[in-house]
Amino acid sequence: MNTSQTVEQLQAKWITPENFQLYGQVIFPSDDGKAFDLEDAQLNLKNGTPRFYIMRLQKRGRKFHKITRHVQCTQCLGSLEGKDWLIAVCPPHNDLHEPVLAEIAAFRIPGNCFIKLNEGTWHAGPYFDHEFVDFYNLELADTNVVDHFTYDFLKNHQLEIEMV
Question: What are the chain's domains?
Fold first, then answer.
């Protein structure tokens, strides 16, 4: 049995609304009083009680081997204090129960915006180079209990991915 592990490097690109549209939305500041439009987060929180909270994450490097998705709701993530961060994503392909490895992309997200992940978008992160980052997170109250599907590249492909 071959138990050797491979580390694949994934180049992180600076996020834009255009290069992120397969996975969700990028939301930048807008003037107060602006009418709701397609530049605002298009949310799906209808399948439960919304939960908006601040989570503190400690630095854990840039490597991952697990990727997760939520199919019942959208999820919004943004850092506090203007700190930049990284996330890896893969389009939903809701008919498949695993991400398509060739379609995984990594993004660097500046601290002046947040992202909204579409339902079913696979994601690994947030990752960052700071000692810790506080993130605001909008999802459902029970998302991590009843709507949390994880795929393990290490277990299934002896693969770890590193965002560079």
Answer: 45-163 (2.60.120.480)
> From CA 161, how far away is CA 154, in angstroms rounded?
9
Q: Which two tokens stand for residue 160?
A: 């770890």
The residue type at 63: K
Nearest to 88 by CA among 5, 162, 7: 162
* pLDDT beyond 60 at 100: yes
Chain centroid to CA 17: 14
Asked if residue 87 lies in contact with residue 139, where contact means CB atoms within 8 angstroms, the answer is no
pTM of this prediction exceeds 0.85: yes
Q: What is the pLDDT of residues 139-159, one digit of tens each?
A: 999 999 999 999 999 999 999
d(CA 153, CA 98): 10
Dihedral, 26, 70, 124, 24 alpha carbons, nearest 10: -20
